[in-house]
Amino acid sequence: MTTNRKIVLKKSPEGVPTEEDFELLDDEISTPDTNQFLSKTIHLSLDPYIRGVITGRHIYSEKVNVGDTIVGRTVSEIIESNHPDYQKGEIVLTSNGWQEYGISDGDGVRKLTGHQGRLSTALGIMGMPGLTAYAGLMVYGEPKEGDILVVSAASGPVGCMVGQIAQIHGAKAIGIAGSEEKCNAVKNVFGFEDCINYKTENIDHRIRELCPNGVDIYFDNVGGETLDIMTKNLAFNARIVLCGFMTQYNLSTPPPGPNLGPIVGARATIRGVVVYDHYDKQDEFISKASQWLQDGKIQYMEDEVVGIEKTPAQFCKLMRGKNFGKTIVTM
Ligand SMILES: NC(=O)c1ccc[n+]([C@@H]2O[C@H](COP(=O)([O-])OP(=O)(O)OC[C@H]3O[C@@H](n4cnc5c(N)ncnc54)[C@H](OP(=O)(O)O)[C@@H]3O)[C@@H](O)[C@H]2O)c1
C-alpha cells in the first residue's frame, strides 16, 4: 500500500479562503481495529458548510483546528474490514474527509447498494444537497400546480434540484445565477422557464417582468440583497424557504438584514430548512429521485477535479462562487 495523502488546516482563513490556508501532508495508512473498517475514497464532496466548520460556526459539527484534517462526506470503497456488518469491496457513503483513506466504526455510514447513476451523485443531487432541496421545497415550499418558484444559486446541486422537483410538481421555475454559462445550463439542462444573471441584470426589473403577479415560492440560498429584493416581489400567501447564506459565509460579522415588512403585506410564510431534521425523508427522497433520474426527469452537473492535491483550490473556487455544478474531488 502507498501513503495516505491528506489536507490539513494550516491557518484559519480570513475572508474568502485561499490555497495557502491548507497543507498537503503524507501520513501512514491506519489499520482498522475490531468493529472498524478501512476505506479508500473514490469521490470527496466539497460543500459550503465546511467554511463554517473551519471557523467553528457550524453548530452541527466540531470545529476543525489548525493541524486537523478537513472533514467531508465521501463515497469510498472498503478495502479492509474488521466490522461484522461491512465487507471488503462494498461501496459506502462515509466521512473520510480530505484524505485518500479513512477508518470508520460504521456510525453515520450508508451502503450504496442499488445506487442509481454515477456514484458521485450520492454526494450531490441524490445526497445531502438533494435531500435539502426535496425536504425544503416539499415541507416548507408546498409547491402546487401553476405556482411560480424562484431559486437562487440555481445551477448548484441544491438549486437545480429545487427547480427540477418544483417542475415535476407542476410549478414554473425561474433561477437566479451568477454567469451566462450558469444561466444557460439552468434553462437548457435543468429546464427552468428562465434564469436571471444577477451580475449583469437587474433582479428586481426582471422579476417584475417575468412574474407580474408575484412569486409564490422563493427558495433562498444566498441571503443579502437578492433576498431583500425577493421579499418585495411576493404573491399573496407566498412561502419563503431560507436555506443558505452564500453571501455571508466569508464575512466575520453578518451584514444588516433585509427589511421584512413586505412579508407581512404579502401574508407570506418564511421557513428555515435544516437538512439534519429531515433524514426521516431520505429513503422516500432517494426512491423518488432514483425514478426521476431513470425517467430523465432530473439532470445534474458536476464541477470535478481529480487528485487530493487539487482539493484546496477546488474548495476556494466553491467559496468564491466560481464552481459550476456540485463540487467534487475524485481520487
Ligand atoms: N439548510 C441546510 O440544511 C442546507 C444544506 C445544504 C446546503 N445548504 C445551503 O444551500 C446553498 C447552496 O448549496 P450548494 O451545495 O448547492 O452550493 P452551490 O450552489 O454549488 O455553490 C454555492 C453558489 O452560491 C452562489 N453565490 C451567491 N453569492 C455568492 C457569494 N457572495 N460568494 C460565493 N458564492 C455565492 C454561487 O453561485 P452563483 O454564481 O450562481 O451565484 C455559488 O456557486 C448554500 O448556501 C448552502 O450553505 C443548506
What is the CATH third-level topology name of the largest domain? Quinone Oxidoreductase, Chain A, domain 1
Secondary-structure element order, as H and E?
A: EEEHEEEEHEHEHEHEHEHEHEHE
Total count of strands: 15
Question: What share of residues are in beta strands?
Answer: 25-35%
Note poorly predicted spans. Answer: none
Intertermini distance = 15 Å
Radius of gyration: 20 Å
**Arithmetic mean pLDDT:** 96
Helix-strand makeup class = alpha/beta
Instruction: Specify the overall morphology.
Output: globular
Please, how many domains?
2
Entry keywords:
seven-stranded mixed β-sheet, Rossmann fold, Quinone Oxidoreductase, Chain A, domain 1, six-stranded parallel β-sheet
Topology of helices and strands:
Elements lengths: L3 E6 L12 E6 L9 E9 L3 H7 L18 E8 L9 E4 L6 E4 L5 E2 L16 H14 L6 E5 L4 H12 L3 E6 L2 H9 L5 E4 L5 H8 L4 E6 L3 H8 L2 E9 L18 H5 L3 E4 L9 H13 L7 E5 L4 H9 L6 E5 L1
Parallel strand pairs: 8-9, 8-11, 9-10, 11-12, 12-13, 14-15
Antiparallel strand pairs: 1-2, 3-4, 3-6, 3-15, 4-5, 5-7
Bound molecules: NADP nicotinamide-adenine-dinucleotide phosphate (NAP).
NADP nicotinamide-adenine-dinucleotide phosphate (NAP) binds next to helix 2 and helix 3.
Written account of the structure:
By secondary structure, the chain is of the alpha/beta class. The protein has two domains: 4-124 and 301-330, Medium-chain alcohol dehydrogenases, catalytic domain (Quinone Oxidoreductase, Chain A, domain 1, Alpha-Beta Complex); 128-277, 3-Layer(aba) Sandwich (Rossmann fold), CATH 3.40.50. It is built from nine helices and 15 strands. The protein has helices at 49-55, 128-141, 157-168, 180-188, 203-210, 224-231, 261-265, 282-294, 311-319; strands at residues 4-9, 22-27, 37-45, 74-81, 91-94, 101-104, 110-111, 148-152, 172-177, 194-197, 215-220, 234-242, 269-272, 302-306, 326-330. Strands 3, 4, 5, 6, 7, 14 and 15 form a seven-stranded mixed β-sheet that branches. Strand 14, helix 9 (311-319) and strand 15 form a beta-alpha-beta unit. The protein is globular, with a radius of gyration of 20 Å. The mean pLDDT is 96. The structure holds NADP nicotinamide-adenine-dinucleotide phosphate.
